[in-house]
Amino acid sequence: MDAISRYKNLERELHEAKEQLLRNHMHPHFLYNAFNSIYSLCLKNSSDAADYILKLSGMMRYLTDETHRSKVPLMEELDFIQTYIDIEKMRFGGDAAILLSTNGNISGDKLIEPFLLITLVENAFKHGFYTNSADAYVNISLNMKNNDLLFCVENSVFVKQHFQESERKGRGLDNLKQRLHLLYPKNSRLEIKNVDNQYTSLLKITLN
Hints:
The protein is of the alpha+beta class. It contains six helices and seven strands; from the N terminus they run αααβαββαββαββ. The strands form two sheets. The chain has a five-stranded mixed sheet with strand order 2-4-5-7-6, covered by helices on one side. Strand 6 and strand 7 form a beta hairpin. It is globular and about 65 Å long.
């Protein structure tokens, strides 16, 4: 093997190692939020706790099974997000303003790296549903045209009280940006806007 081939192999291995490391960083944050939700239901002696745990078990199975796959069907990733939403609706109530809509061809031939989209969804709930305000909302939409994916997440923004403030810096968005740089360096764009009490994340990816 010549020097150029060895260099390319090393570069590929480094790329895969970085991608795996960034993906694994998502799991502790997700688990922390999920167990907090279960704790809240248990405090209320809610009968939904058992169903919540069952749904969470399914999500954890997906997290475990798909960790080592480079790509998964887009439909499976959306099912994962829908289960996440179902769990949050159990926590905040069935009337909570949480919507997920899809448009275009999202059939099995569309593949995406796992756990890219969920970061934006988690972020919306973290900042849009920490309050019980009736005006809180999270709107999620996915549009697929040919190989171009447009994923939009909008959530309400409220002024936090002093007891809700935290100096902890979230790593989710930073990890997502690094993963996009590694996986879709020329075929992705992430736009973040915070205007008029609405936080909007817009992710555009051309799937390979």
